[in-house]
Amino acid sequence: MIHSDLLRLAVELVNPSLVSALDRIQQRQSRDGPPTAHLVPSTLLEAIRYSLLAAGKRLRPALVLGGAQAVGANIRIALPPACAVEMVHAYSLIHDDLPALDDDDERRGQPSCHIQHGEATALLAGDALLTEAFAVLADHRPLSDEPVAPEAQRLQAVLELSRAIGAAGMIGGQIDDLAAENQTPDLGHLEAIHRRKTGRLIQASVVMGGIYGGGTEAQLRSLRTFGAELGFAFQLIDDVLDSDGIVTIQGSKRARSTAQELTDRALKALQPFGPNSIGLRELAEKMVRRLA
Ligand code: GRG
Which ligand 1 atom is nearest residue 201's CA? Predict the structure, then answer.
C-alpha cells in the first residue's frame, strides 16, 4: 500500500525514532567512556530533548520518507535520514533564535531554547544536534527495527547533507541573509539566499530518502529538481504569509504566482515516478494550498 499522508506518517514513525536517537546519545555515557564520568551532561540532554521533541510539523522527515517511497522502497529504511534532517532543522532553529541572529523568544509555541535553558546551553545543544545527526547517518545499527541501508548509501547521504547545510549551502545563505539586512538586495540575490538558507535542507531531505531507498542516478536527479523547486517555493510561501522577503520587492500577487510556477515545476519532476510519487505530490500541493 502506498501511504499518501506523509506528514501524519512522519509524526507516527519519526517521533519514536527521535526518542531512540536521544536514548542512544544518553547510553553512550556508559559505553564510550570511563563508567565514572558523566559524559553527557543532563542539562545538555534536557535542552536537546526540549527543542527536538517540540511540536513541529516534521515536514523534512516527511520529504525523506517521500523520497524513499518515490523510488519504490520500504519507507522504513529511510528513518535514520528522516531523524537526521529533523535534528539539523532543530539545530538551525535553536541557533536562528539566539540573540546574535533573529533574537526570537518563542518557537513552536513555547519559549525558545535559550529562553528556557540559557544562551550558552542553547548554543551547545544546537552544536550537539548538528553533530549527532551525522552519527545517526553513519551508524550501522537500526534506530528501531528498520532495515539498514548499505554503507555506501549512508556515506552518500552524509555527503549530501553536509554539502546542503555547509558553507555553500544553508550557512552561506544565512550569512548572505544577514549581510542583506541593511541593503536592498535585488530579486536574484534574494532568490539565491532563499534557495540556500531554506531550500538546500529541503532538497537534501528528499534526495537522501531516494539515496536510502536505493534510487538510480536518474531518479536522484529528478528528486533533486523536485527538492530545489519545492525548497524555494516553501520560503516564498512563507514570505507571502509574513508579507516579508521577496514580497517586499515583487508584491504579493507576483510572489504567489511564482510560488505556483515553482510548485508546478516541482510536480513535473515527479512524473517519472508514476503512482509512487503520490506522497510527495500531496505534500507539494498541501504546501501551495496554504496560499489559498
Ligand atoms: C542559524 C544555523 C542557522 C541556520 C539558519 C533555515 C535557517 C538557517 C534558519 C531557520 C529559521 C527560519 C525561520 C527559516 C525560515 C524557514 C522556516 C519557516 C522554518 C520553519 O520551518 P517549519 O515551518 O517549522 O517546517 P516546524 O516548526 O513545523 O518544523
Answer: 6
